[in-house]
Amino acid sequence: MKNNTLEPIVPYDWDELEKRVAARMTAKRFAHCQRTSVEAVKLAEQYGGDIQRAKIGGLVHDYAKQIPDADFIQAIHDHHLPAALLDYGNAIWHGIVGIYFIEDELAIHDPAILQAVEEHTTGAPEMPLLAQIVYMADFIEPGRHFPGVDDARAVTAKSLQAGVLFQLSHELKYLVEKQEPIYPLTFTSYNAWVRRIGHPADN
Ligand SMILES: [Fe+2]
Ligand SMILES: [Fe+2]
């Protein structure tokens, strides 16, 4: 009996999923996806999340990261997504628009996994547990080396929700520092999370 089946979440097994994901990206990015999957499983174990969905969501979160811009633009039109998305680029598209490629090419239609992928670039005001797990796994997996990553790991080890707020704050600071445009949902997400769990000592 095969023990790596992913059914009914994915209609084929783990080896096949890895093969399909690897075929769409560089070896370096695939290694990041594998580490994110392992980290997501750890967080799911710690915080009571769905292990199988964390493992799959972590692996596929960047599935669309190397899809050409022209294909994203086509998908934005085909799926009648907000035209405002066209003002942004791959950094936003590979999550929000990437889910359509995951559905079409990987035959994954699980709403919780798709939502986790969709929200991994901007966060969201209300993120379900699985979305929080994939969002944080992507940020703190062992291959990450940005300044502050150790703080991010320490905060997330104590509270997954505090980790989410940490990452949203980090992302905004980073984008402002580089004078990059910011997708409005990132602000909306930050506001919701900072109101929910910011400054716990003041509450
Ligand atoms: Fe990503
Ligand atoms: Fe990633």
TrEMBL record:
UniProt xrefs under CDD domains: HDc
Q: Which reaction does it catalyse?
A: P(1),P(4)-bis(5'-adenosyl) tetraphosphate + H2O = 2 ADP + 2 H(+)
- Taking every annotated instance into account, which residue ranges of this chain make up the domain HD? 29-139
Coiled-coil region: none
Gene Ontology MF, one = metal ion binding
> Which keywords label this protein?
Hydrolase, Iron, Metal-binding, Nucleotide-binding
Known InterPro entries for this protein? Diverse_Catalytic_Enzymes (IPR051094), HD/PDEase_dom (IPR003607), HD_domain (IPR006674), YqeK (IPR005249)
Gene3D superfamilies for this protein: Hypothetical protein af1432
Q: What EC numbers are recorded for this enzyme?
A: 3.6.1.41
Q: What class of enzyme is it?
A: hydrolase
Q: Which PANTHER family match?
A: BIS(5'-NUCLEOSYL)-TETRAPHOSPHATASE, SYMMETRICAL, SLR1885 PROTEIN
The name this protein carries in UniProt is: bis(5'-nucleosyl)-tetraphosphatase (symmetrical)
